[in-house]
């Protein structure tokens, strides 16, 4: 049968019309698969990035509303005069940050300046979504009705990191302080932006600090907590916030965790240059690459919390798995064309065209996914 097929092929190795049609539809099919998959991935990552930017801007802007906070919540009745407490932060060290455990630990100074004896901000402040591990009164003074206190605090804070864009992710670390006894109508923080800062020596493995912001916003609790002295209404507390913007400084971490996958993809593509009838090395490379890609997926998933969402890391891994699977399918088709149909030239052209198109498309889609999230 092989000899008969070779007889039907022209002497100069020209591919017959049906072969040219097959090559054309094969290329179109490969492009469509990667276009559909890539469009979904890029759209998901880009939408997440824009949503994160919007949330971060709302959170660090003292006059912008956000989820759970309306414009009316900023206003106080004209007959209410709360004690103004000038407060600020100096972030001294970020001891630990764990995406997989959803926590970060920070050492910071916080100070309070106020007049009067109606409030005690130093004694009563708490860290929202966190636990104070150490609280040390560093210094204090009183001059008549004027008071000043500064504390050194270590706090462990829970944060559910948005890891969809991992490993080219960026985050806003939120440090939120409230008085646990006094409502906003009696105590309101005034952010001391002129002296608040972050230690320039602060280091976070894998990230760089981009921006530091301090502000005050109301925090609304939709409950009176059963207090009979309070009418049934939401209660509002003044919240002093520090926001630390962090992001990946470069693509070093990205390449480090995907180098194994990229080598596996390269091996699967190189296998297309092996003669189709050499089944053991040709299919062996593809199968080995498949196992490496699966192992890489397992390793990268262990670096982040189990959220149930498809992250950018999952997308890159899945894209690699898809390409490797396509190379195995292509090898099967090429073997059939070469050995059963006897179209050796068509088989050779299919291998070369597949290598070129798969390599180019894979690089382009990967690059667009990364740039859309970074």
Question: What's the layout of helices and strands?
Answer:
Blueprint: H1 2-8, H2 17-60, E1 83-98, E2 103-115, H3 121-124, E3 125-127, E4 130-143, E5 146-158, E6 170-179, E7 187-191, E8 197-198, E9 208-221, E10 235-247, H4 252-270, H5 279-301, H6 312-340, H7 344-373
Parallel strand pairs: 1-7, 1-8
Antiparallel strand pairs: 1-2, 2-5, 3-6, 4-5, 6-10, 9-10
Helix pairs in contact: 2-6, 2-7, 4-5, 4-6, 5-6, 6-7
Describe it.
- It is built from seven helices and ten strands.
- The chain is an alpha+beta fold and 374 residues long.
- The chain folds into two domains: 2-48 and 251-373, Neurotransmitter-gated ion-channel transmembrane domain (Methane Monooxygenase Hydroxylase, Chain G, domain 1, Up-down Bundle); 70-247, Acetylcholine Binding Protein, Chain: A (Distorted Sandwich).
- The strands form two sheets. Strands 1, 2, 4, 5, 7 and 8 form a six-stranded mixed β-sheet that branches. A four-stranded antiparallel β-sheet has the order 3-6-10-9.
- α4 (252-270) packs antiparallel against α5.
In short:
With 374 residues, the protein is an alpha+beta fold.
State the main characteristics:
Neur_chan_lig-bd_sf, extracellular ligand-gated monoatomic ion channel activity, Acetylcholine Binding Protein, Chain: A, alpha+beta, four-stranded antiparallel β-sheet, six-stranded mixed β-sheet, 374 residues, transmembrane, Methane Monooxygenase Hydroxylase, Chain G, domain 1
